[in-house]
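Quick one: structure for this chain?
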Amino acid sequence: MLHRPDLGFHDEGQDLSSAEFYAEAIGRPGEARVLPPVAFRSLQFSLMEDETVWTRDWVSIGTQDEIPHDGDLLPFTVGQHGIHVQRVGNQFKARFNKAQHGGCRAIPLQCQSGKKTKCSFTSCGYSRDRAAIPARDLGNDTPEMQQYLGLRPERLLTAHAGQLGPLIFVNLDVEPESSATAFADLNEAGGFFRDGSRLVSSGWLEFPANWKLLGQHLAAGAPMLEDEGRVWTLARTSIEEQPALVAWLFPNLVLMRAGDETCAIVLQQTALGQTLCRYFVYSPSRENGASAFWTKEIEHRAAKACADHHGTVRWGTNSRPETIGSALPLQRDPQGLWMQRMLARRAARAPRQFFSQPLFQHARG
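Got it. Here's what it folds into:
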């Protein structure tokens, strides 16, 4: 073990993983303030999220409907780590991709900016993902096979896979906590996935907002229930005057239910101020028309997140000179306060000693 006096994450003169950084953001409703803007505009904060969130929590990556046949493969970049889930018989195998950095001898500077780049090496943890890959495209010595599986997939570093209804999750930690109880409790409380529902619509939408702010606004509603493990929150809301439920399963899944339909929204940060939403609509009855209903609601809520992001990242800068030296605004959104508490709990587990580990630092008990 190699020791360093401090391995904290610092930016704008602040220790981003310290209790002091979050002290004003986790107070009581009506007293807590929003997170400092550095949490939404800093590459260092994004790297800390990779260390404390994306490599620790159960992360939603898509659905089993995307990989219906044996050998089909679903790529997804989790933080800075290129992984995939492959259907093998009736099981789902989660693995780190063979080519973690696309085959480059050194990571180009443009790929170190926190923005996912378009690249022919689609497995790279710094590039954008492609859609699911059918087994027929993973033949011998194809580019896809070399980037994701290699010649001996059984030798790749594995990850953990889990499911909530039709949704697939991964966890990159070595010994993660079980997701079964939290997933079952959420589904029971919200009734999101019921027998007979099937995928009727899906698509990708992208918005200029940090993933945390987008999750906050997509999950907006009157708080109803929060699980004891503090990984999900459930709220009442309305969609086009219909009573609805919305849940946020931290960090990157938002579930909405109106009537007998459920829309699952998977969030993926593609830049510091940009988030991709992969949405999937499940219904026991409707076969078409569902997409327009749900995309309208997603875009309506996302517009608020984009406006929030625009104002937040400029706070305390010359773009908003009236805010320089001012106290941060109060956090008046219950989902925003919940998100801040989730981040504070995870930041507390940021490593303070350097361990010589590949890919990421393991949790310390």
